[in-house]
Amino acid sequence: MNINNFGYSAWGMLYGNVRIRKIRNTANGDGLRIKVLYAEREYQDIYYDDVFFSQIDESCLGLDILYAEEVTVTEMLAKRYDCVTRFIMSNGKGDAVLSELKDTGFRFFINYLSRRQEYLVVAKSVFVGREHISFR
User: Fold this and answer.
1) Residues near 24 by Cβ (< 8 Å), separated by ≥ 6?
2) Which residues of the chain fall below pLDDT 70?
3) Is there a contact between 115 and 41 (Cβ–Cβ < 8 Å)?
4) Nearest to 65 by CA among 107, 97, 31, 21
5) What is the structure's pLDDT at 89?
6) Residues 80, 2: contact at Cβ < 8 Å?
7) Nearest Cα residue to 36 out of 26, 24, 51, 50
């Protein structure tokens, strides 16, 4: 990971300072739900819909997401994120796969975890919402 990427794309910041408590795929397999604890006091849900690819999996449980941001194809290619390079290499189509996905409505989200690694999620949308907890 290139540590110089941290903090430079704040315009696309989605969330941060959260600890991953649960991860699960939706029943139809195209969504990703991540239950997080924000600032050690409030639970929130992060929903990625229409997921094409995710590097976030059960091995991330208990880790902190320092922050997550949406990035463009141009930014990904210019900064050469490690997670993007792994995705491109595993796909077999080279850099062109990024433009193809963008043209079909996919967006690119990079999560910076406490392991000091980047995790890529390719999905059509993301929603971050607060869970309302009843104490009755």
Assistant:
1) 32, 33
2) 1-12, 131-136
3) no
4) 21
5) 79
6) yes
7) 24
What length is written for the chain? 136
How far is Cα 5 from Cα 27, in angstroms, rounded to an integer? 34
Q: Which domain holds residue 121?
A: 8-130
Q: Is residue 27 part of a domain?
A: yes
> Is 2 contained in some domain?
no
Write out the two tokens for 111.
């999560």
Give the three-state DSSP class for 3. Answer: helix
37 touches 22 (CB < 8 A)? no
Three-point CA angle 14, 131, 24, nearest 5° = 75
Q: Concatenated DSSP letters for 46-91? A: EEEEEEEEE---GGGTT-EEEEEEEE-HHHHHHHT-HHHHHHHHHH
Amino acid 6: pLDDT: 39
Number of domains, the chain: 1
Residue 136 within any structural domain of the chain: no
